[in-house]
Amino acid sequence: MPPARPSAKLSPVDTVFTIGHGTRGLEELVELLGEGPADTLVDVRRFPGSARSPHLARAALAEALPPLGVTYVFRGDTLGGRRTGRDDSPHVVWENPSFRAYADHMETDAFQRALSELVAEARAGRRMAVMCAETLWWRCHRRLIADALVARGLAVVHLLGPGARAPHALNPAARPDGAGHLIYDVG
């Protein structure tokens, strides 16, 4: 895990942020987005509900964020985690079956289309933060989404907490396959 770094003002063009909501309140979440700066929250939770934090459920965020100046976009259907892996998965570096299954999902047309949309929006100047529930980015499928964005030439910065962020570096076990996919087999 990279160390947290103090916030530095980066150009939001060609930069995508990630954030894990964890147990944050809505106000803290919006403040962290402002530190990015990000004005669009891209929800990549496959199942965007929270019994412990109902204010972070999909419908609640879709209603609460726009009046606070944040656009809410749900992409959990195409970019969400909790996927079923393939028996013949080439992503042998991932010992965690959830990460291996997500790497398999990254090869699908649906994922590639959704990723291309994110890349195009970032390059057009949209200031986005990709959000999931897990606070720690390296324990979340956001780390694989971040790899895919970096492989496409974008900068990715993980928003960790007030005043703390970490730039993302491509996983050294990932290699491009020539067809626009990353294969996690270099060890």
UniProtKB/TrEMBL annotation:
InterPro entries: DUF488 (IPR007438), UCP024492 (IPR014519). Pfam families: DUF488 (PF04343). PANTHER family: BLR5642 PROTEIN. This is DNA repair protein. It comes from Sorangium cellulosum.
